[in-house]
Amino acid sequence: MPKLTIDGIEVEAEAGMTIMQAADLVGIEIPRFCYHERLSIAGNCRMCLVEVKPGPPKPAAACALPVAEGMQVWTQSDLAKKARKGVMEFLLINHPLDCPICDQGGECDLQDQAMAFGSDHSRYVEHKRAVAEKHLGPLVKTAMTRCIHCTRCVRFITEVAGVPELGMIGRGEHAEITSYVEKALTSELSGNIVDLCPVGALTSAPYAFHARPWELHKVESIDVLDAVGSSIRVDARGNAVMRVLPRLNEDVNEEWLGDKSRHAVDGLRYQRLDRPYVREDGTLRPASWEEALRAVAGRLLATDADKVAALAGDMADAEAMVLLKDLMAAMGSPNLDCRQDGAALDPTDRAGYLFNPTIAGIEDADALLIVGSDPRWEAPILNARIRKRYLKGKFPIGVLGPRTDLTYKVQDLGNDPKTLEALAGGKHDFAKVLKEAERPLILVGMGALARPDGAAVMGWARRLAESVGAISDDWTGFAVLHTAAARVGGLEAGFVPGEGGRDTAAILDGAEKGDIQVVYLLGADEIDTARLGEAFVIYQGHHGDAGANRADVILPGAAYTEKNATYVNTEGRMQRTWLAVHPPGEVREDWKIIRALSAAIDKPLAQNTLDDVRARLAEVSPTFADANEGAVVPAAYKAGAGGTGGRLEAAPFASPVTNYYMTDPISRASRTMAACTDVYINGAGDGDSKKRTGTDG
Amino acid sequence: MTAAKTIPESDAADAPFAFNEASLAEARRILAKYPEGRERSAVLPLLDLAQRQHGWISRGVVEAVAELAKTPPIRVWEVVTFYTMYNQGRIGRHHVQICTNVSCWLRGADEIVRAAREVFGVEFGQTTDDGTATVSEVECLGACVNAPMVQIDDDYHEDLDYESAKALFHAIRQGHAVQAGSWAKRQCSAPAGERSTLTADPTTPEGGKWIAADSPAAGASAGGAK
After folding, report:
1. Domain A109-242 CATH assignment equals 2.30.42.10
2. In 3-state terms, what secondary structure has residue A415?
3. Quick one: where's region Disordered (chain B) (predicted)?
4. Stronger pLDDT, B211 or A663, i.e. the higher one
């Protein structure tokens, strides 16, 4: 543990730390552009120059110089100040003075540091260079003249995103950041390079010229577009969400965010259900809340309880689900299910449906088998964590599933579910790899569980985990990767069939045959609505998607940015969103709608406030206790609880996510996501966006 | 100097490239110098090899080298654009590189440039109509002692003036063989005329003065410089 002094303050740093890291320990801020704690060290911006003794009589780059015993560092000496001022002058030589029309203005590292460390005037009188814009896809807008060549974007795309497509070409004055052949970045994490860019060279294309940072009010919330539950900050102006940015959360998303979670928010403005509707003579007509609730109540009261069913969708919050569950119980109907994809998840066995090792725990694993999942599209943030572990080395990864180009090297085990039997029986080469590992991890996706033989797959996967020693006192190497933000919350809240009740498949069968006469869809859109038959359909949700299209009554509920709601991510981590903007029109929070409906059918629920509902949630499952917010309540793994596995079908696993950019009503309504779909899924439109006018029209 | 550019997509169709048998054998020999997993170290020699076969670095070359060096094409393209000696465009049969940096310029590089313009009839960066030669302007090639100089393909032609440069360029244009080295018939970078220093015999007391006193040679010379 070398001891050194920085600005006279004694610091005890770990061996191998750099001066910059040591300074961060004691809260001394050294300015920087290229250095980023999650990327490799480049040392090319020179902004972090400090005076160091002993050493050569010139300033040294704090980001790249390891600490040594007895080192003396000055960050505010005349030498250091003069060096930084000089570096800043060089950086500004070719940097345009276009801050007033630059989207980075107001949140620009260069702007801030030029104020703090730069000179008050420029001595540069030559022409500034201009650099052609680059085309990096529909999400990243470029203004490369502003680039200061810190190479953070290059390092992020290469190291974290794992798609080495960006580079710095040329040298000296002619250096430019570009992709190899100019085409859209094929990464689901490309939006992060906008955050990383310390200047305005890379800015968010969908957000271009929409708002200034000081006009926005910022609300810390949780993402619900996948089951990872990334921490986000919602930036809104007035009552419109302008953008979503990631928020630091070491346990979940570090400081990254997937492109869908970041850019699908424009979908919150389109296709919204902003008032109740009632179907009359085959068409939906706007109605008042009273009318709509009366129509629903009338129908519910006139139908036998066992002919009523409820399905919860992928973005339903736990509050609404627990109230709807209680309401169904009050009516006497056992037909409810939150697994609208029909995944074989046993609600009574928590360890059987959670990502037990936790996302951060992936870094502790030393072998991984992915079964029937495409983490790159189902949870890009989690995939980045797998890549992070992979880069540390000695991490064999086997994939038994639909996709193998996951940004890291994998052993392709094919896509035959029967391979699981061989693995569990120890008859497969990769079983040995898992057995030899100390902390093997078996990751099971929805592509493996949401199929007719899902229960058998679950059984075999658990047998495999148990047989290779993935379960021990300090390590539960069995992980279920969900695709829906609501799923775990629904299972925890008990939104599953009661005794003798129907599950999703049975509800749809019943509706088709006429045995189920009323179906309550709580934001459920990913079902085959054609199978709802003649049933009376109530849709509660925020977007005019599949469910609303088929509905007889629409009860408009709030989206995740418009309510304080509880979600549980795939790890079992209970997290809450915060209201960032008020719901549009006559939209109400979901739990209130159900509470009002309970009164309309004369079975009023006891919960009158959000606190009451949350107390009820905590009663149902300790996961929801206020004290557990943001934390994972670990589940005890019961060996053998998954059964022994049954007959596996030969059909290959297929991921439920066939288009990363459109998986839910919000992203389907988003124009940005439509543009991404065009470019990345349909391979079209890529050429058109090159035809820029240069006026940023 | 050619400015770096993003590699155009169409290049792939324009210039297909595959290492021929001889190059491939050489490439394997180069790759064998580096430990497994460090194939990327071979990018520079592999690019040189490919350029010798193909004349310039096309997208096809970048991709073939990237494959051999087990590295993403963008990493190879970064290298290509960093070094001016890799040609980013098609060139003629001969590459005439004229140094116009300070030493050569002081010694009359402008005259060499004039001679080139007259003989080849092209500007810097252009190729003659018949494809004989491409003329480029380069920075210092490290032969300042023999300035002004021109590099043609792998050879240096030094101590040029307008007349000799013209003769040299005519020979190139007409496909005649030319002798590399000093056109003033200097031996390497030895003085152009008579020696002006170190003229005395180093083994005599006079000549031995430049030998350090504690050198064994100092003792060997009679008396030395004590």
Report:
1. no
2. coil
3. 192-226
4. A663
> Checking DSSP bridges between strand B155-158 and strand B150-152, what pairing results, if any?
antiparallel
What fold is seen in the domain A350-483? Dimethylsulfoxide Reductase; domain 2 (3.40.228)
Residue B141's CATH number: 3.40.30.10
B57 contact residues in A (CB cutoff 8 A): none
Is position B196 within any domain? no
Q: How many contacts does A have with B, using Cβ atoms within 8 A?
A: 50
H or E segment to which residue A505 belongs:
helix A504-513
CATH of the domain at B81: 1.10.10.1590
The domain A3-93 is classified under which CATH number: 3.10.20.740, 3.30.565.10, 3.30.230.10, 2.60.40.10?
3.10.20.740
Binding site as annotated, residues of B for [2Fe-2S] cluster: 99, 104, 140, 144
Whether A350-483 and A3-93 are alike in CATH topology: the answer is no
Substitution target from B2, B10, B67, B78 for chain A, most A beta carbons within 10 A: B78
Is A277-340+488-632 assigned to CATH 3.40.50.740? yes
Please report residues of A whose CB lies closer than 8 A to that of B3.
Answer: 170, 174
What is the band of B215 on the pLDDT scale with cuts at 50, 70, 90?
low
Query: Is A166 within 8 Å of chain B by CB?
Result: yes
- Residue among B3, B73, B82 whose CB faces A180 most closely: B73
Residue B194 maps to a domain: no
Q: How far apart are CA A24 and CA A75, in angstroms?
A: 12
**A171 in contact with B, Cβ within 8 Å:** yes
Q: What is the mean pLDDT of chain A?
A: 93
Q: Which residue of A has its CA nearest to B63?
A: A180
Give the number of other CB atoms < 10 A from CB of residue A620.
Answer: 17
User: Does A165 reach chain B within 8 Å, measured CB to CB?
Assistant: yes
- Would you say the C-alpha torsion A677, A678, A682, A686 has a positive or negative sign? negative
> Is-cis flag, bond preceding B148, omega within 30?
yes
Selection from A424, A448, A454, A439 nearest residue A358 by Cα: A439
Residue B218 lies in a domain: no
Sorted by where each begins, the domain ranges of chain A are 3-93, 109-242, 277-340+488-632, 350-483
Q: Which residues of B are annotated as a binding site?
A: 99, 104, 140, 144
Report the C-alpha gap between A302 and A296 in whole angstroms: 10
Task: Mutation target for B interface from A154, A158, A169: give the one with most B CBs within 10 A.
Answer: A169
Domain annotation covers residue B160: yes
Q: How many domains does chain B have?
A: 2
Do B74 and B108 have their domain in common?
A: no
Q: How do residues A24-80 score in pLDDT, each as one tens digit? A: 999 999 999 999 999 999 999 999 999 998 888 999 999 999 999 999 999 999 999
B8 Cβ under 8 Å from any chain A Cβ:
yes
**Cβ separation B82–A181 shorter than 8 A:** no
Contact yes or no for A181 and B3 at CB 8 A: no
Task: Look at residue B226 in the predicted model and tell me its pLDDT.
Answer: 37
Residues, chain A, total? 697
Query: What's the CA dihedral at A365, A371, A377, A381 to 10 degrees?
Result: -20
Rounded to an integer, what distance in angstroms lies between the CA atom of residue A213 and that of residue A41? Answer: 29
- The answer to whether A174 contacts B72, with C-beta atoms less than 8 Å apart, is no
Query: Which residue of chain A comes nearest to B9, CA vs CA?
Result: A181
What is the percentage of chain B residues whose pLDDT exceeds 90? 67
**What does the pLDDT look like over A280-316, one tens digit per residue?**
999 999 999 999 999 999 999 999 999 999 999 999 9
Question: In this predicted model, what pLDDT tens digit does every residue of A180-192 receive, in sequence order?
Answer: 887 889 999 999 9
pLDDT digits (tens, 9 = 90+) for A79-126: 999 999 999 999 999 999 999 999 999 999 999 999 999 988 889 998
Across the interface, of A158, A167, A183, the residue whose CB is closest to B77 is A167
pLDDT of residue B167: 95
**Residue of chain A whose Cα is closest to the Cα of B7:** A181
Residues B78 and B116 in one domain: no
Q: Is B4's CB within 8 Å of A171's CB?
A: yes
ipTM, interface predicted TM-score of the complex: 0.88
Contact between A67 and A18 under an 8 Å Cβ cutoff? The reply is: yes
**How many CB atoms sit inside 10 A of residue A98's CB?**
12
Q: Is the model's pLDDT at A395 over the cut of 50?
A: yes
Range of the domain at B20: 1-90
Partner-chain residue, chosen from A134, A166, A171, that has the shortest CB–CB distance to B74: A166
